[in-house]
Write a structure and sequence with these properties.
Blueprint: H1 23-30, E1 37-41, H2 46-53, E2 58-63, H3 66-81, H4 84-91, H5 99-106, H6 112-119, H7 122-127, H8 134-150, H9 153-161, H10 165-176, H11 179-188, H12 191-198, H13 211-225, H14 232-239, H15 252-260, E3 265-269, H16 272-278, E4 284-288, H17 298-311, E5 312-322, E6 337-339, H18 341-350, E7 358-364
Parallel strand pairs: 1-2, 1-4, 2-3, 4-5
Antiparallel strand pairs: 5-7, 6-7
Helix pairs in contact: 2-15, 3-5, 3-6, 4-5, 8-11, 10-13, 16-17
The structure holds S-adenosylmethionine.
Length: 366
């Protein structure tokens, strides 16, 4: 079976050089069981690796884009060969003039396909392998070209220093949310610009509202309710680096845990639909589905969901996000999947990757 999205969209370049879903939320939502089997969309690899570090017995990472699998493979080789500091350099999170040398040390750990991919793209390695995706370049364009027209560096820095919610609320209303912010963000994060430069026009085909509308509703959560100083995703978008917080898989305390369990990870360059078709019933204890269902029709979504319910063991959890499309278990699957609405709402409130309008957690019924 060919994935519906693969019929209309080209997948060969790195679209996501890092994962843009909060792995703290994912690890909590999946309640990873030691020794359990998990299926994960690979994307750039960080969140499949977080499941490895959380103690899964087997993680099957899947992506239909070979460039994304090359991102995952290079991370795996880097966890094996590099120190934590060197790893952050290779990613582009720490300054470095020796990324090609670090890559050379990881190279022999790659499959032929991944080696050919990275050998042919030294400029991407030099830039930092977590900075080189289409989506990261789009965010960098926002930071370099748009943000300075709205806020000074001093204003951006101040946001990360405000300690109380009350101070942030005042700052947000009086300083941050000005007319330029509203106008330029509506243009930059509108469908034409986001589709062309950030994601793909096909990714919002089923949208029921403009991305900017959804984003605008989520912003107070990231800038006011949560502490920006603890939000790596917000820091990356506004300053180009993780400053005072890192995503789960990049933290020093998780580095050794991931490295020690790398043999639990396997990967397939294929559509999740095809991988599911091969998996025995009841064989999977949880799935990280990123926001793949946003891209597909309700009929395609429901047929994948039915397969996920078949492959899931009793109590297995499916975790996925929505930005501008409402995807959640249809009534016809009531006896097979149970929504964990309270857990999802609790975790959504703490979700530092603030651009999703909701998080869905569904459990396979016994
Ligand atoms: C769904 S995208 C989402 C990234 C980010 N959350 C966003 O909203 O822009 C993450 C990854 O899913 C992969 N993907 C999308 N549909 C897929 C499918 N049916 N099977 C396997 N991988 C898929 C893409 O190639 C991409 O690397």
């Amino acid at each position: 079976m060919v994935a519906e999205i693969a019929k209309t969209t080209r997948f060969e370049r790195v679209r996501y050089a890092q994962c843009w879903e909060d792995a703290d939320v994912l690890v909590d939502a999946l309640a990873v069981r030691p020794g359990g089997t998990y299926l994960s969309i690979a994307s750039a690899g960080d969140n499949a690796l977080a499941l490895v570090g959380a103690g899964a017995g087997r993680v099957i990472a899947v992506d239909l884009n070979p460039a994304q699998i090359a991102c995952l493979e290079l991370r795996v080789a880097a966890y094996r060969c590099l120190s934590h500091g060197e790893f952050l350099e290779l990613l582009g999170q720490a300054p470095s003039g020796r990324r090609l040398c670090l890559y050379a040390r990881c190279r022999s750990g790659l499959s032929r396909a991944a080696r050919e991919f990275w050998d042919g793209r030294p400029a991407l390695v030099r830039r930092g392998i977590a900075r080189c995706g289409k989506f990261e370049r789009y965010l960098a364009l926002f930071r370099r070209a748009i943000l300075p027209l709205i806020h000074s560096r001093a204003t951006v820095s101040e946001l990360f220093r405000l300690e109380t919610e009350e101070a942030r609320e005042r700052f947000y209303a009086e300083r941050w949310m000005n007319r330029r912010w509203k106008l330029l963000c509506r243009l930059f994060f509108g469908r034409p610009a986001l589709g062309r430069f950030g994601r793909d026009p096909n990714f919002t085909r089923y949208a029921d509202e403009p991305v900017w509308h959804s984003l605008q509703r989520q912003l107070p959560r990231a800038l006011v309710t949560q502490r920006p100083a603890e939000n790596p995703y917000l820091q990356w978008i506004l300053t180009g680096r993780f400053r005072t917080a890192l995503p789960w898989a990049l933290r020093a305390e998780n580095y050794a845990r991931i490295r020690a369990n790398l043999d639990a990870l396997e990967w397939r360059c294929s559509a999740i639909e095809d991988v599911l078709a091969e998996l025995p019933s009841g064989s999977v204890d949880g799935c990280n589905l990123s926001d793949v269902f946003e891209y597909v029709s309700p009929a395609a979504y429901e047929s994948v969901l039915a397969e996920l319910a078949r492959c899931g063991s009793p109590g297995a959890r499916l975790v996925y996000w929505n930005v501008v499309v409402d995807r959640h278990r249809p009534e016809s699957m009531r006896g097979r999947l149970r929504p964990l609405t309270l857990d999802a709402a609790r975790l959504h409130a703490s979700d530092k990757a603030f651009f999703y309008r909701n998080l869905v957690i569904e459990e396979v019924c016994p």
